[in-house]
């Protein structure tokens, strides 16, 4: 908790945490930060403030005293995060990948801040904690902290949202480059690219689906007899109208799907692999022992991309990732004359503008000349 505000000449005679409030006074709890009006004469207000300080100030150094005095567990940040996770998160209908990302952050907050009293997390303490993160990470952590403290205020555990009072930073523009046909071809032809990853790359390029949907796509979704593959895209499950697709497979998409089904692994997933070692903790963390997790896919895509030197002319932090395959696929569909409405539906985009954004940046653009007339007569 921050120290009491600097005393002015007019209230220097008052004890710590007691401040004038119009005709009467106000006491600021040094543990919780909450303010309480004391509608009493000066002498009585001073006596009450000193008595409160005598009980509360030692708790800033040892919160166990609070538990001894009140007989209740002190409200720590750990308990706030526990309640946020159990009472607030389940109501959000978030995608599984988003939930996992949030829970990883919450676990970090428990580790870093869990033993602090909620009242000790004032604006200064919150700002100092968030400042350890780089620009884009800062923005994401600050956004989650604002939600946590909104919950704290709504539940009466805090009197203000200290996270919202920290500086809002603008995210840096993404510098990730687009994939090229040559770059992806190099990855697909390289002996260093695992077969399961080659299938995942082709499946993403042809279906335009997101990483989380590629790794969770079930074999049961395929009907070769009717040439249909179904998918309910994960990111849209919390939309008012979730997106469910029945995709008529072209020859190339059918080919890669057939190859996925022919893999000699008893797995519920189209994209699967046989781990070299099966550690119990890793197996328990996955839906199936053969499943490819999102992080595993991202990691091995990056390794394969760099091993075949497909994009060595681009700085490492700007080289395209697995996600950018959607953009290249959307552009290739456009180049082959596929109607934009079909591409938008396949990508699960709400607007045509979003689809166009993905399709941009794959052609080297020179100057665009506009033909005009200069027919002035003198």
TrEMBL record:
Domain called Core-binding (CB): residue spans: 75-153
Database matches in Pfam families: Arm-DNA-bind_1, Phage_integrase
The keyword 4Fe-4S belongs to this UniProt entry's keyword annotation: no
Keywords for the protein's UniProt record, in alphabetical order: DNA integration, DNA recombination, DNA-binding
GO BP of this protein: DNA recombination
GO molecular function: DNA binding; integrase activity
Protein species of origin: Halopseudomonas bauzanensis
UniProt-listed PROSITE patterns: CB, TYR_RECOMBINASE
Protein name, UniProt field: Recombinase XerD
Family, similarity comment: Belongs to the 'phage' integrase family.
Domain of life the protein comes from: Bacteria
Domain Tyr recombinase: 174-377
UniProt lineage: Bacteria, Pseudomonadati, Pseudomonadota, Gammaproteobacteria, Pseudomonadales
InterPro entries given in the database record: CB (IPR044068), DNA_brk_join_enz (IPR011010), Integrase-like_cat_sf (IPR013762), Integrase_catalytic (IPR002104), Integrase_lambda-typ_DNA-bd_N (IPR015094), Integrase_recombinase_N (IPR010998)
